Amino acid sequence: MASTSRGRAQDLAKVAGGQDHEVRYEAKKEGVSKEMVKKAVKSAGNSRKKVEAEIGRH
Q1: From first to last of its 58 residues, what are the pLDDT tens digits of the chain?
Q2: Which of 8, 23, 33, 44 is disulfide-compatible with 54, CB 3.0–4.6 A?
């Protein structure tokens, strides 16, 4: 597991829908809008694999 600059554990297998930088990263990576990523997190949960699968279905 990666850690933040403060030494806290960071779970890279999850997308934090409330964190703008994570939403922007996922949107750029998948080539979709930030709103689409937020909707995918809301409907599929915060698992990165599930969010990517949800985006792929649209």
Answers
A1: 677 778 778 788 999 999 999 999 999 999 999 999 999 999 999 999 999 999 998 7
A2: 44
